[in-house]
Amino acid sequence: MRVAVTGASGFVGGAVLDLLLARGHDVVSFSRRPVAPRPGLEHRRWDVTSGPLTDPPTVDVVVHAAAHVDEWDGWAVHRAVTVAGTRAVLSTWPAARVVLISSCSVYPLRAPRPPRQLLSEDVPVTSHHLSAYSRAKAAQERLVLGRRSSVVLRPHAVHGLGDPTLLPRLERARRRGRLVCPGGADTLIHLTDVRLVAKAAVAACEIPCGTTILNVADAQPLRLSAVAAGVVDANGWDVRPLFTGSLAAWAAALALEGPARLARASTPPLLTAYAVSHLAVSRVFDTTLLRQRLGVEPDPTDLSRWHREDAAGRADASHP
């Protein structure tokens, strides 16, 4: 099978690229940054904001992982990269199946009431986005779901070796021997291993399952206390977790984010509403359809791999 991968130099796109090659597929990768050459791989430089390709290669499936991931940036850049970039991808390959790497951030903040505790794929997308990132991902999904036989994958809080987004935020939360954790120790955090995202994307390429949306998350959620302890151990930090509680975390995020927005700060404050939504709110995702449609079985969360790569490793915190 011949597969195109956009955003191939990024954290998730790179993992998808590696697994496709390992499974013997013929791959054409696209990104602004170079990727390591290897057998079975053709690489082309492409900034999706430049519009459709004029000489696209023929492919069977497109794994679309390119997006702007910095939630602090404004709507204009997210619209240009994530939304307009997706239009460029769809125009470049008008007949190919598309597998989109989306995000569970498109769901409402609160989980359904009992007895239905899990967020499943039939829960409507929120109309109250906490960031331009989630708003753009929702718009991206609408575009892709208009393409027949396309698959939308929704991971949540992707972790693993070389994570360029969440881990740096946790690193910034170290203060005077403490790791400040916005939320309660018992808050349930449902993470997604980057290797699981790759497995789901490759399975979606290999197994036609019709137009569908699939949650992608590890086997079970973890308490925030377990996540904090695991990240501290994986990185060898000499700190102890300090849990703020949910109300204090939200209050701090609102107090910090408002002035930073008014000042047009180029970097986010220590806490933002979007960051707090990942760590201070219990949300558990139903992965039944992932198992049924693609035969992908999530593994338990392994936090021992959630650390930085060395200087030669792959990390890209902007759109790849």
From TrEMBL:
Protein origin, superkingdom: Bacteria
Biased composition (Basic and acidic residues): 302-320
Segments of this protein annotated with the region Disordered: 300-320
Domain annotation NAD-dependent epimerase/dehydratase: ranges: 3-206
InterPro entries cross-referenced by the UniProt entry: Epimerase_deHydtase, NAD(P)-bd_dom_sf, NAD(P)-dependent_oxidoreduct
Coiled coil location: none
Gene3D superfamilies from the UniProt entry: NAD(P)-binding Rossmann-like Domain
Protein name from the UniProt record: NAD(P)-dependent oxidoreductase
Species whose genome carries this gene: Terrabacter ginsenosidimutans
Lineage of the organism: Bacteria, Bacillati, Actinomycetota, Actinomycetes, Micrococcales
